[in-house]
Automatic annotation (TrEMBL):
Gene3D superfamilies linked to this entry: Glycosidases (3.20.20.80)
Family of the protein in this entry: Belongs to the glycosyl hydrolase 20 family.
Pfam families: Glyco_hydro_20
InterPro entries given in the database record: GH (IPR017853), Glyco_hydro_20_cat (IPR015883), HEXDC-like (IPR038901)
Extent of the signal sequence: 1-22
Domain Glycoside hydrolase family 20 catalytic: 84-308
Species annotation: Flectobacillus longus
Keyword Hydrolase in record: yes
Keyword vocabulary terms for this entry: Hydrolase, Signal
Name recorded for this polypeptide: Family 20 glycosylhydrolase
Length: 369
């Protein structure tokens, strides 16, 4: 072996050790580094795959949450498919991509709440209107908030005797095709629950109803050793904390935090202030992930907070502070166009999900150095 060859081997060893050290360090500081976005349409699937390879893998993202809902060609319930839904072959491309890059792939279908948006009823209640918690509330031609009905999004009735057979068949199918050990059920911003006019839910405790639905889903997933993830806003007292009716609850569901299984992962989202409620969830015994959206400076603060929580906690509390997840609430297509500066005529803005994504993962990148 020449001196030059020996030098190259030493250099490669140093670089490998350095990379492994950096990886170990960021894993210790931010174990879960996640990205949440709507599942892409078939036409842009290859663009999305390239985005994952070029932007997520290079930033050491290790969890990809795809909001699928009905953008899949369900075989169990083809009547619930979107018109141009992803095929099994499409999903398997994403599964292979994530396996190759050690990324946990998690699907989401909105359960309980978010069964409508603006003036549009989503597929479940469109096909099965009998599941509607508030069927007397009609969808407006033009949606405005606030409105006389208090309509934000429709909910299904958690006590309807037939609803879980349908939704659990969807859940099982999407989890199987994703080859996943976790499922995200949404369950955020549930304004309609335990309505006084509902023949099944009227007069029942809203916290118990919400907790009952969380545990029902959690227990079903546990049959196949899968874990439940949900958004955390319904478990926060929006009045007492001043956090409000969107990032917290005004309809008394917050007491459900003491009634649900502790192995549910809480995705704790705060978009207008970097509220430190991750501590609350961790103290209640839950694994928690902090989720920013569009304000870069807050994402940086939230990332720093997460590291501080882990470093300053007891050995029992530390593992509950699981990490960070950038959320995107536009389509995958529009986010990619925004990220790469394509097809936009809007003036440059600081507070966008693309800039928030860059800021959060840039802050994480500094942690590994």
């Amino acid at each position: 072996m020449t001196k030059f060859s020996h030098f190259l081997l030493l250099l490669m060893g140093v670089l490998l050790h350095s990379n492994l050290f950096a990886q170990s360090k960021i894993d210790s500081l931010i174990p879960t580094r996640a990205f949440c976005i709507t599942a892409p349409k078939t036409q842009r699937l290859n663009d999305f795959i390239k985005f994952v390879e070029d932007e997520l893998v290079t930033r050491q993202v290790n969890t990809l949450l795809l909001r699928v809902d009905y953008n899949y060609q369900f075989e169990s319930h083809p009547e619930l498919r979107d018109p141009e839904a992803l095929s099994k072959k499409d999903i398997k491309k994403l599964v292979a991509l994530c396996k190759k890059n050690n990324i946990q792939l998690i699907p989401q279908i909105n359960l309980l709440g978010h069964q409508s948006w603006a003036s549009t009823t989503s597929n479940l209640l469109k096909v099965y209107p009998e599941f509607d918690e508030t069927p007397w509330v009609k969808m407006p031609e033009k949606y405005v908030w606030p409105n006389a009905d208090g309509l934000y999004c429709k909910s299904y009735c958690p006590l309807h005797p037939n609803v879980h057979k349908i939704v659990f068949e969807l859940v099982d199918e999407i989890c199987d095709v994703f080859e996943t050990t976790a499922f995200h059920a949404g369950m955020d911003e549930v304004f309609y629950i335990g309505d006084d006019k509902c023949p099944r839910c009227s007069g029942k405790d809203k916290a118990e109803l919400f907790a009952g639905e969380v545990n029902e889903i959690r227990n079903h997933l546990a049959l196949k050793n899968r874990k439940l993830w949900i958004w955390g806003d319904r478990l926060i007292d929006g009045k007492t904390t001043g956090i409000g009716m969107w990032e917290g609850s005004f309809n008394n569901t917050h007491r459900a935090i003491d009634l649900i299984a502790k192995d549910v992962t809480i995705c704790d989202w705060h978009y207008e202030r970097p509220d430190q409620t991750a501590v609350y969830f961790a103290m209640k015994g839950f694994n928690v992930i902090t989720c920013p959206w569009r304000i870069p400076k807050f994402a940086v603060i939230q990332t720093q907070d997460m590291v501080r929580f882990r470093q300053s906690s007891t050995a029992i509390m530390k593992p509950h502070f699981q990490g960070m997840m950038q959320t995107v609430w536009s389509s995958a297509e529009s986010f990619m166009d925004e990220f790469y500066g394509k097809n936009t005529t809007k003036p440059a803005e600081e507070n966008t999900s693309a800039n928030c994504f860059r800021a959060m993962f840039s802050e994480m990148g500094q942690l590994g150095k």
